[in-house]
Structure prediction request, 474 residues.
Amino acid sequence: MPRRHISVTGAPEAPLRAALTALRTELGVPDAYPPKALAEAERPPTLPTYDATDIPFFTVDPPTSVDLDQAMHLSRQGTGYRVRYAIADVAAFVVPGSALDEETHRRVMTLYFPDEKVPLHPPVLSEGAASLLPDQTRPAALWTIDLDAEGRTLAVDVRRALVRSRAKLDYEGVQKEIDGGTAEEPLALLKVIGRLREELEVARGGISLNVPEQEIVERDGGYELTYRAPLPADGWNAQISLLTGMAAADLMLAYGTGVLRTLPAAPDGAVGRLRRTAHALHIDWPHHVSYAALVRSLDPHDPHHAAFLQECTTLLRGAGYTVFRDGNLPTLATHSAVAAPYAHCTAPLRRLADRYASELCLAAVAGEAPPDWVLSALESLPQEMAEGGRRAGTVERECVDIVEAALLKDRVGEVFDGCVVEVEERRPSVGVVQLESPAVIGRIDGDDLPLGERLRVRLLQADPGAAKVRFAPA
Prediction:
């Protein structure tokens, strides 16, 4: 599920670059890999015997991405469809208990900053030997999922295989080919299957957040805020990943041992805050309209709607990893946003837990016991992922604060229209204000802050190198 995406276009000014560098130091973000781990990343992989290189897979990713976790091939199967989804086989490269394995458990997940990323695996592996790059033979966990005419799952298989991607596609190019009617059937079916899965998502009460990428554009010595709205192809592609994650969860639940991505229903307070944010951004949210229905009605091309979708990610903050063994199924086995059992298994180059989920699914289909190295790591995996998730969340929040400070640094003293969306219970003179334009949030200090009401606020400070954005009632 999505996090907020934020990037800086152009050459970031020195204060912004320095602030982001200082943040990495302050948070103790891993830097260089230990020499032994780097050496191990160069070792040849363990290759499977099953050869699926005759299947013309393709990848769909942002144009600059080279850490390619997934490749797909779509076809018709009787009156339904067949989804073949190849996932990079990280376990073919990482030896359990090795220095490289220990380093991945220290890093847990790839961290994304506006100016760079800090990868889970050494680039020689994540952007090279293990990445499903075009015209390269790679080891993979190959999922085969058969669907009926309505897109419902009929049968699931996963096995280790050699695969070979034929094309590296990007969202804009995919959308253009599909809309123009020039896409060959394996690509054209992405729209067909994606829409069927979206309809099923609505029917079961799930929701996918098509979160726009928040982009800070450097221009004339300053910055301005823009959003890149996701294309329909982004959503169709995400549905293939969701389909696989749901299939993985079902396999592990039937197997009796697994690791799920779970999320309880959002607390009323979080939804209330979102309602106030909607009010601040002039988004009409009648009380009889559900959160899911509202989100589906939004246009991510509208800056106010885009800003609101960014804030909707706050409802995902209660997500965690739930481990179960030996048939002792968990009390909470579902992800409320997916509205079904769900597992992370499709991004092993960027997320540690996916390697373990993949191994459990492979064992479940083969009818074999899980590998000992998987079982020995299961108990501590949720805590490791939680700590990694907290670090990623801190990176996200701090980066937003720094970049928004850069955006407003030359406007200290100006007055803006806003709305107080949150007031601290123990310190009612401290709250959070959502500006109408530019659509940023910041701390506000003042007596009797009018929660949920519009007001004029004055910008007191905004320094990307020293201080977060702070306002006061005007």
